[in-house]
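User: Here's a protein and a ligand (protoporphyrin IX containing FE). What would the complex look like?
Assistant: Let me lay out the input and then the predicted complex.
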Amino acid sequence: MAARLAQSAVQRSGRWLLPCPRAAALVWTRGAGGTSSPSVALSVSQDKPRTAEDLPHVSFLELLYRMVFQGYYNRLHELQVYEKQLYGPIYRGGLKSVSLNSVKLLEEILRKDEKFPSRGDMSLWTEYRDMKGLGYGPFTEWYNLRAMLNKRMLHPKDSVQYGGVINEVVTDLLKRIYYLRQNSPTGDLVTNVSNELYRFSLEGISSILFESRIGCLEKEIPAGTQDFIDSIAQMFSNSMAVMVMPKWTRNLLPYWGRYIAGWEGIFKFAGKLIDKKMEAIQQRVDKNQEVEGEYLTYLLSNTQMTSKEVYGSIAELLLAGVDTTSNTLMWAMYLLSRYPEAQDTLYKEVSRCVPADQIPSAQEVMQMPYLKAVIKEALRMYPVVPMNARIITEKDVVIGGYHFPKKTVFTLCHYAISHDEKTFPEPWKFKPERWLRDGRERPNPFGSIPFGFGVRGCVGRRIAELEMYLSLSRVSDNNQVSHMAKNKLKDFQAARSHTEKSCLVYHCFIAPAYDTIISVTQSLSFPCLPDNQAV
Ligand code: HEM
């Protein structure tokens, strides 16, 4: 079971964009190569804007060479860095997409975004829903649903209400780590941290969305939940094949059938839990009792949303809200384990803000600047959505002094931008302090926008942040961990300084994951360790 989970985690981390199949296609088909020099790229001062034809261009053969022979097919984020060196901040790739690869151009396009911003065609997702008469969610039918979903999710004060629920899940994560460590051959190792964090994230987001627990952190995952996890993996892992294969192959090759079966599993599981909630609400309404609840209850009691739309929205929120959070947590822990001084600073902050043996609350973690900076810096270095897209659909647009017709696809090179040394000196170093508001000059806000920007930005941002703050602060808090790991207490007591203590915690917790990280990075596109940080 663990192996299957690990495999599915690996498959999921291969996604480049959040559920946005067409945009993912762009990533794969976008060009690389060409011989033009970077100096031709920007020409803002001209009277008449130049056009896309004037941009450095990448041919299909160059793309193929880079992907296959230079091995960029699974290091696409590094390709952004490489291409920027070759072509400068703006260039034309395959399928006529235009890559924007500087903080200035990123800001320019996002500030010109439309009222209903578009990331691209979602027909791969809508097709299944249309076939089965199912409802859409925020990815597939944005404008009608987003306003409703924003409520109770978007504002930091909204997320605080989920603090108690998330903390229960964090407690179970810690118990599970304790259990796994105790039962490991050496008595202190967790052998598949990414798997545990995936389970944690799924349990966390489910407990908010379904207002009930689904057992991901139990010793044995309930069969229905395991099927659901497998369905998510199945849907994602077959998406790419379904997207690139012509439709006539669907009855001949296995991918389409598997892809559809994946969606069926997802909707079946989500539908069951939603129906259960609906019944409970109905019973209370019939008895004239007050209806209580948070997210799902709010959506279900909202007369502007049909139950079909609730099904569609919950399914899409679930898909977007699991590996994003778990991978970021994984990277944050990995980075802390490599930078003991940062770990020590974090440990001290948590100890200072939270009385010993108390669980940090949602309000308390919001007052921990270093904790927030750690997450921000981890997301800068390893953004889970390292590349995104925008299409200006309504009108022509001028970007960087170039004129583009409407419907031009722009690829946003977030990974390269967030590693630009002009914005982030020593970009390959983990330096959470660059985000502190302590009088130092702060980086350009568009330098790292891991949750996107504007009205189309991540709807789950506040919940994701809260989940990460609550879990990281408790893993960092020596009291909690030593309390949890009673058998290991003497090791902690033997350690001479806080740093050593917390290092030990991280070491035991994270060290076995290094192999996982490396195997993920070697076999898939992202996340990936830059060479200078390889373990
Ligand atoms: C570390 C965690 C996360 C990161 C880094 C992240 C990042 C992103 C990014 C970059 C986008 C695209 C924004 C844009 O195009 O401007 C996005 C969209 C989205 N995210 Fe997240 N996300 C995270 C967690 C979550 C969670 C926990 C949920 C669900 C509760 C969620 C739900 C969504 C949804 C529904 C969208 C589509 C929004 C729309 O199209 O209007 N995300 N996310």
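Summary: The first strand starts at residue 50 and ends at 51.
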